[in-house]
Write a structure and sequence with these properties.
The protein is an alpha+beta fold and 97 residues long. The protein is built from three helices and four strands.
Length: 97
């Protein structure tokens, strides 16, 4: 079964309070066995619309990624993310080759 990934592109608008979102999300990542592949770091905009912060979080499968996103805990964290940043967010299934 292929792994799945949260892919988020983020523009943080409130640097002081954004850590509240990170702290609120931490229990979700632990509960659902998530692993950060990319979390911020250097980025070079080459094509299309981009944001300065990029995040990729790995889950064991698509269902687990969706369950984590839809969990009450993450939905509470999501409200903080939306208050402190603008973001594009998707869940993608990996290649099982």
């Amino acid at each position: 079964m292929p792994k799945a990934y949260w892919v988020a592109r983020v523009s943080v608008s409130n640097e002081e309070q954004y850590p509240e979102y990170l702290q609120a999300g931490a229990p979700v990542y632990e509960k659902y066995g998530a692993r950060f592949i990319v979390r911020g770091g250097r980025c070079e905009d080459l094509e299309g619309l981009n944001r300065p912060r990029n995040v990729i979080v790995e889950f064991k499968d698509f269902e687990t990624a969706m369950a984590a996103y839809n969990s009450p805990e993450y939905q509470a964290a999501r409200k903080l993310r939306n208050a402190f940043s603008d973001s594009d967010f998707m869940i993608v299934e990996g290649f099982d080759g």
